Amino acid sequence: MKILVPIKRVFDPYAKVTVAADGLSLEALGAKFEINPFDEIAMEAAVQIREATGSVEIIAVSIGGSEGEEQLRKALAMGADSAILVETNDPLDSRVVAAELEALVRELSPDIVLMGKLATDGEGNQTGPRLAARLGWPQATLLSSLSIVGGVAKVRRETDLGEEAVELNLPAVLTTDLRLNEPRYIALPGIIKARSKPLERRARATSIQPHSVTVGYASAPTRPAGQRVNSVSELVAGLNARGAI
Amino acid sequence: MPKILLITFGPSEAAVASGFVAKLGGDVTVLALAATGPSAYNVLDAGFSEIPPSDTISTGVADIARDYDYVAAVSSLAAKDLLARLAGHLDWPLVNDVTAISGTKEFQHPVAAGAAVETVRVAGDGVILTFRPAAFPGSPAGGVGTTEAISLAVSSGSRRTEAAAKSGTRPDLAQAKVIVSGGRPLQTADKFEQIIGGLADALGGAVGATRAAVDSGIASNELQVGQTGKIVAPDLYIAAGISGSTQHLAGIKDSKVIVAINKDPGAPIFEVADFGLVADLFEAVPELTAQIRQRAVAQ
Ligand SMILES: Cc1cc2nc3c(=O)[nH]c(=O)nc-3n(C[C@H](O)[C@H](O)[C@H](O)COP(=O)(O)OP(=O)(O)OC[C@H]3O[C@@H](n4cnc5c(N)ncnc54)[C@H](O)[C@@H]3O)c2cc1C
């Protein structure tokens, strides 16, 4: 079995993100870049499938600037067998990324594309299902559990009401939610070993243009400062005066 | 006039969408996936008792959506799942969680866990949007539209083997006027239910939780509020034993009044709270519950 895991490079999700002075980009001063946490969960899930079922080839792929190598090296250290960096400085949106992933899928024929439900920076929330539609493959998003039994993915996924169980024939596109697993800690030997694993750099396969562009960013509106109350009675009186209870 | 297809997943969505569609401007048709009552808009009623998985209905929905200028839905997990696949079929742009409209093809939505608001300009024949109704207040549209039963094609794809069931009788987080949420320090499911659930019941409200509370197994996952949980906008949000991480705050910023009860005076939750009480929640919350119940008796 072959699993393709797309990896996005994002700001450390715990860093304080602010709008750059020109209003055209986001910055997180002094923050490191990380694998998008949902993609890291996807990597972990792929490794767990290999541990449970035996022979599984895991290919990590990232689309973007050359600095994405850092995150692909980490994916290799987590257990990917090889990595592909589709190197480009073109503006990207989920349309372009889905089209590039589609080209890779048609070339590599994975059984599963296992990816994050969203990236914590742009919060586009759409690349997985977009890719699934382009391929005409079934999809299951927001997974909280996953097992592969005889060519069928048995998953539980988060819904507005709670959790549901779904089965899908492979090939399929699956997206991860936070509860799926806790990505493993990578020890130094793994990082050193990953340096010798194959990482291929290549150019884009399509010339598809983005159909959504960022006009600019504004800081999120802040709430006016509130008041401290010293007791529960004072709180009840305050809420009452505001008509909140 | 542009044509808007409003896809609804539940009976109350068409009514809460009125402010948004009025702002967008256009001729509205509702595609009701779940059975729904009469509406101010013309309705195409697919009438599923249980909405099938997105990948089995997306091509059928795409065949209808193709003729519209905008396809929109109230933000929810179900809406994002289906509309993102629709965006793939139609090759149209999709902007999720829209909170403002600044042009026929220009929309704002929060990014980076609510740290910033991005303005996105889209190009193409049609545009797909999910939106947060709290950002578009409006009174329900008047009149009664027509209802046409349609049969939406269902193709093969993923198979649901167990449906999610709503548990309990408390209101849904998405619609609740009052929400009481608890965090990690509640320690056990019993204490969580007794202390947080107790105050919620006294106020007739819903219960919410942080991811830390859900992860430690003391609250069920559909109660999670925040960037990766539910985005809520009640009149009153009470946070007890919640530190106020950016990811949690991303889900509560549209609340009218926020109350924080935390024993650490430096907890970031106090920066967004209208009323902050530095106290041990195990004392303060039961006392608050008692005072609320007393008021109810007195009235
Ligand atoms: C990608 C990503 C997505 C995330 N999405 C979400 C999300 O959607 N929702 C979410 O909530 N989190 C989310 N998180 C997690 C988030 O970063 C925090 O870890 C989490 O919100 C913390 O939960 P908490 O406030 O319950 O716990 P803590 O941070 O441990 O805070 C507990 C608070 O309780 C106070 N306290 C302790 N004892 C008492 C007492 N007896 N009385 C009163 N106060 C007390 C403490 O002072 C502290 O402030 C996400 C994280 C990541 C990386």
Give an account of the 3D structure.
The complex is a heterodimer of chains A (245) and B (299). Chain A has 245 residues and is an alpha/beta fold. Chain A is 28% helix and 32% strand. Chain A has a single domain, classed as HUPs (Rossmann fold). Chain A contains six helices and 15 strands. In chain A, the strands form three sheets. Chain A has a nine-stranded mixed sheet, with helices on both faces. The N and C termini of chain A lie far apart (58 Å). The model of chain A has no long low-confidence stretch (mean pLDDT 95). With 299 residues, chain B is of the alpha/beta class. Chain B has two domains: 3-149, 3-Layer(aba) Sandwich (Rossmann fold); 178-298, Rossmann fold, CATH 3.40.50. Chain B has eight helices and 16 strands. A seven-stranded parallel sheet of chain B has the order 5-9-4-1-2-3-10. Chain B starts with a strand and ends with a helix. The mean pLDDT of chain B is 95. At the A-B interface, strand 3, helix 3, helix 4, strand 9 and strand 11 of A face helix 3, helix 4, strand 5, strand 7 and strand 8 of B. Strand 15 of chain A pairs parallel with strand 16 of chain B, so a sheet runs across the interface. Flavin-adenine dinucleotide sits between chains B (183-185, 210-213, 224-229, 241-243, 245, 247-248, 251, 262-264, 267, 280-282) and A (13, 37, 120, 178).
* Low-pLDDT runs of chain A: none
Structural class estimated from helices and strands of chain A: alpha/beta
Helical residues, percent of chain B? 25-40%
What is the tally of helical segments of chain A?
Answer: 6
Instruction: List the ligand species.
Output: flavin-adenine dinucleotide
Indicate the CATH topology of the largest domain in chain B: Rossmann fold
Name the pair of protein chains with the most residues at their interface, and give those residue counts: A-B, 77 and 88 residues
Number of domains of chain A: 1
Name the CATH superfamily assignment of the largest domain in chain B.
HUPs
